[in-house]
Structure formats: structure tokens, C-alpha cells
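ENTRY TYPE: protein
WANTED: fold as C-alpha cells:
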Amino acid sequence: MAGGVGSWGRSVRVGSGPGLRFSGGLGVGMDLGQEGATGAMACDRRVFMGAGVSLLLGGCRSQESMETSTPAIVATVGMVTDIARAIAGPGCAVSGLIGSGIDPHLYRPTRDDAIRVLKARLVFYVGLHLEGRMQQLLERSGVAGEPFAIGEALPKDRLRRAEGSEAPDPHVWMDLSLWILAGDAMLQAIVERMGEWVEGATERWRRLREQLERLDRFAMECFSTIPEPHRWLVTSHDAFGYLGARYGLHVEGIQGLSTDSEAGLRRIRGLVREVVERRLPAVFVETSVSSDGMEAVLQGAASAGHRVQLGGSLFSDAMGPEGTYEGTYVGMWDHNITTITSALGGRVPEGGFRGWSGDGS
């Protein structure tokens, strides 16, 4: 299973300030920060287990019991959580760590996150450095078994690399055909790890897989209606490269693959020039990324005599609020497809994906 051992010479920190530091013979440490030292959990002893590198917090008391009658699956971003929940069904407690509107590149894991990871039977994360500050915790602190890095389970020749970078693009859910393969891998991991608790998982995934294949066809049809000169998608950061490659859009982001950097003035000026020269009708912000850079693009284009519209907010690294249609992977995609297509001059069936007949009409 993916999510290997890596280098064991560093500490994993959760929170900040002085606090409890767990370390063992492998040279691995985990610092829960001041909050961990003074919070609801008080630990009497700590032990690292050998080759599996499981962190066992013995004699710990917390507001939430470390044991549960229902086996737990923990995932990082919502796109992973939603697929895991659909496959696992009602027999497992599936929860996500990084909620709606939160940037996973910059997310700082909390003490509660550490506890949830420690007691989970299975932990899913994208990997490929998407989760940034959380990835060390996920790879090095599992109790029940090693976490599953979805990006490592995908075909290497399908992974995109940004221009001038050797690092793979982690936004793999932006290609529906690739995320279907991720779901195949997640199904196998869930069945192997959760056993009788996930009866019917294969059938549940078959139904969802068919829906995602249909959604892929819907995306192809909608994006193909955008006039050729307007098939430029300008967004806050480079999260839509897989979408562009799959569906025939040229994609430009103010920031790079990670939001853990500032947008340069030269980059903004370059995008303003492209928007003006191509007379693009719209640019887009993202729900989990600051809109400041895009405001500068809008103002720059206006100063150059081209009034470009803000086409809407797209879901990139996070889905919509939990409990809403946009808070599902299908709903997130439906929103993005209809928003992009409409703003760039294409045609969307009334009702979006849910109103689409699938016959091209």
C-alpha cells in the first residue's frame, strides 16, 4: 500500500509553541504544541512500534475515546472524503480533516486531527505534496496501518508536471477519468482494510463510477461549445491543469501549483496582457484562495481599455459546504463546468448535469 516510510530524522509538529514531544528509537518525533500539552488529552506514556512505525499513545485520556464501535476512515480533502464515504457506505464512520473553503497547501494540522489519524483504521490522502504541512503526520503516525497516498496509486504517465518543474501536479481530481482510477484504488484499499464493515462497497462504487463517466461526457460536451478563441481559463492558482488537458482548455494561474507563494507583479502583468490581447470575456477566482491577485488582473485589464468580467468562483482545492450539492464531488464538478462554460460563451443544458439528457440535445 502507498504512503511509505520516507526519512525518519525529523519531527512532526502539530500546532505551535512548547508542548508534548513524542520521540522514539527511530529518530522520529511528534510535537503537539502548547495546545496538546494543556488540552483535554493527558498522556502517561508513549511508545513507537517498530517496522510498521505505528505510534501508540498508551494510557491516554481524551474527551473522545480512542476506541469506537464503528471502524473509522479518515481522509484529508473533501474530494477524497466524498468518494471514500460513497464506497464505504453506512457501516463505517468516514470523516474529512480539511473542510470547505480551506486551502490544503497551507493547512496546519491540529491536535484533534492527530488523534483522529491515530485511531483511524484507514487514512486516505492525495499526496504529491498537496497536503503540505500535514503529509509528514499522515505518513508517520498511523496506528492501525500505513496511510494510503492516492497519488502514488495512479499511473505515473498520467501525472502532469508544470512547466519548468519536476514535481507532479497534485490536483489529480481535476481530470474525471483519472479520479475514476483513484476510486478504483480506493475501493481495493477499503475492501482489504475494512472487510465485513463495507458490505456492498463494490456495487456502490460501480454506480458512482458510472455517474462519473457520464459526468465526464457532460464536461466534454459543454466545454466543446465554448468559442475557440475563448477557451482560456484564467484562475487564481494553477489547479486546473488536468482539467485543461482533458477538456481542451488553455489554463493560466496567477500562482503556481501551490498557493504557498506570492503572485509576482511580472506574472500579473503578463496575464493582464493575455486577457486584453485575447479579449477574454471572463476570469475566475477560487473559493479556497485569496482573490487579491485576480482583482489586480481585473483592474489592469480595465486600465488597458478591456472590461473583463469576473466569471464566478470555482471549487479547486476544496468543495462546497457540507450538506449542499456543491459539497459533493459531482456537485463541485457540475458547478465548475456550468460556471466556466457560461462565462466563456458556451452553452449549458438547463439544469446543468442533473438536467442533461445525455443525448447531445
Notes: The longest helix spans residues 201-223.
